[in-house]
Amino acid sequence: MCRLLITITLFCCSLTLEAADWPQFRGPGGQGNSASTDVPLFWDQKTNIAWKTAIPGNGWSSPVVSAGLAYVTTAVTAEEGNGDISLRVLCIDLADGTIVWDVEVGRLNTDVSIHPKNSHASPTPVVTNDRLYVHFASHGTAALDLQGNILWQRKIDYEPRHGSGSSPILYRDLLIFNCDGEQSPFVIALASESGQERWRTPRPPIAEMKFSFSTPLVIDVEGQKQLISPASDVVAAYDPANGEQLWMARYPQKWSVVPRPVYANGLVLICTGYDGPAELLAIRPDGTGDVTESSIAWRAARFIPHNPSPIIHNGNIYMVSDNGIASCRDLQSGSLKWKERLGGNYSASPIAAENRIYFLSENGMCTVIRAAPTFALLAKNDLQERSLASTVPIDGAMLIRTESGLYRIAE
Question: The domain at 17-409 falls in which architecture?
Answer without folding.
Answer: 7 Propeller (2.130)
